[in-house]
Specification:
Length: 496
């Protein structure tokens, strides 16, 4: 189903904001002098649910690194994480500083770096604020919510000389590094096409009967940031924002950006594609989500094209009706979530754990295997100590380009129109990989009982891209979507 015009327009109707809030919990000044002399890197973590907890653990386990500040707009989450970091210590005696507003954290001169696990629509703004405040930044994927603000992030990192790592963790895994190097050396010959898979179970987020108030204890104005701080239009406040375009980027930007990044590396691509088109919809249920749960995108690239596929429904209607989605997703060459390079002499497959890569010959026989993980947080800290962005395995520019591929597909989808599968397949006939993806898309949905004559997919607009300028060619509507708009007080600057 095409995303509602209301949802697209809501993103562009942004107005007024309140001034910055004061810190939630009073905290004593940290001992800047003594810790600087000891070479300790002091980190503040922003956005503490889910992935934010991993950030706290990841930095806390590193020698010479201390998590000294926490920030979250949800008072309950903030208190829980603070008590976990200093168990058995009363609020009055805690050393960790706690903040509701990230700007109060950034104003402190006793914090060296910030780690951002906030919602997507806040990543760019918080990164820019942090760089301007003289902090190094680790920012989660996708680094941006739209293409334009991603480039501003790259610019501000370069201008301020800050170290900015994007959360593309696979780039620090030894198996990935070694297999890509082997591929670059001609291990299986010239590429034919790259294929990214995100077959991840995503059930309905529910359908509310009217707008809801934010949960108690949440500063909804700060959470909304550049978006309108209006009523909540989903049952679950946290996490399910991923499936609403004003805040999230669907599974393309949530999980899929990792696999997009790997596909780019397999192809050796550092720029945007010449053109992009996406096909998708939200099938199998009606809920408050606006991002597609079933989608594929085609990217016209040198040296070979890329196909990316998202499926949130299980392999068939039986799995859907019995509720056993977790182990019942489709597989492509044995993968549910992963990246594949199909080349003249075989293929390379990297699964979602990133600690294993396997090469196969033309007959499908395994010819080589790589294993080994890595520590992306440690790589960031190493670059911070050396004051050298070249040390980073995934600098902000790499994160920006991979996120932009996701945004290209979503922009194509949001600007598309419903069409019949037959018409879509005929139109894509000039690109065999895209046509094959369309046929797999059709088969998957029909296996889930979706009548594609009744629930027609959205055929996205074909978007031509000026790769040097990172803008759409001859399409003002698409350019406006790429650019986004921002609420007063939470605006991304015109120049980074």
């Amino acid at each position: 189903m095409n995303p509602s015009n209301k949802q697209v327009l809501r993103r562009d109707v942004l107005r007024g904001t309140t001034a910055a809030a004061a810190s939630l919990l009073a905290a004593p000044a940290l001992a800047l002098g003594s810790r600087s002399q000891e070479g300790v890197i002091r980190v503040g973590v922003v956005g503490l649910r889910g992935r934010g907890g991993n950030h706290i653990q990841g930095f806390s386990r590193l020698d010479g690194v201390e998590v000294v500040a926490l920030c979250d707009v949800d008072a309950g989450v903030l208190e829980r994480r603070a008590s976990e970091l200093e168990p058995g210590v009363s609020k009055a005696d805690r050393k960790v500083a706690a903040f509701e507003d990230v700007r109060d954290m950034l104003a402190r001169d006793d914090i060296d770096a910030v780690s951002l696990a906030t919602p997507n629509h806040l990543h760019a703004l918080h990164t820019i604020w942090a760089c301007e405040a003289g902090k190094d930044v680790y920012v989660e994927k996708p680094v941006s919510h739209n293409i334009w603000e991603g480039r501003r992030m790259v610019e501000v990192a370069e201008r301020t000389g800050r170290i900015v790592q994007s959360g593309m963790q696979s780039r620090s895994h030894r198996a990935v590094q070694e297999s890509i190097a082997w591929l670059d050396a001609g291990g299986i010959g010239a590429p034919r096409y790259a294929q990214g898979l995100c077959y991840k179970p995503r059930k309905s987020i529910g359908l509310i009967d009217g707008p809801k108030a934010p949960p108690a204890g949440v500063n909804h104005d700060l959470w909304s940031g550049p978006r309108e701080a209006g009523p909540v239009e989903r049952q679950q406040y946290h996490y399910d924002w991923h499936w609403q375009f004003p805040f999230g980027n669907g599974d393309f930007g949530n999980q899929g950006v990792h696999q997009v990044d790997l596909c780019r590396r397999m192809l050796g691509v550092s720029k945007l594609p010449r053109r992009t088109v996406a096909v998708g919809g939200r099938f199998g249920y009606e809920d408050d989500g606006t991002t597609p749960n079933s989608m594929f995108a085609f990217y016209d690239l040198d040296p070979a094209p890329m196909i990316f596929e998202v499926r949130g429904l299980p392999r068939d209607l039986e799995a859907q009706t019995n509720g056993k989605w977790g182990g019942s997703m489709d597989r492509e060459y044995g993968l549910t979530i992963g990246s594949l390079l199909h080349a003249e002499d075989g293929r390379l497959a990297i699964s979602s754990n990133y600690g294993r890569a396997i090469a196969y010959d033309r007959k499908g026989e395994e010819i080589r295997r790589w294993e080994g993980g890595g520590d992306h947080f440690a790589n960031f800290i190493d670059a911070v100590r050396k004051r050298d962005p070249e040390v980073l395995n995934a600098d902000v520019n790499e994160g920006h380009i991979s996120a932009a591929y996701c945004h290209l597909a979503n922009d194509s989808y949001m600007l598309g129109c419903e069409d019949s599968m037959g018409s879509i397949e005929r139109t894509l006939g000039g690109d065999p990989e895209a046509q094959d993806a369309a046929q797999r898309f059709r088969a998957h949905l029909e296996a889930n009982g979706v009548d594609l004559e009744v629930h027609r997919p959205t055929f996205g607009r074909v978007l031509a891209v000026d790769r040097a300028e990172e803008r759409y060619v001859g399409d003002d509507e698409a350019t406006a979507l790429m650019r986004g708009t921002y609420r007063e007080g939470f605006a991304v600057p015109e120049k980074g």
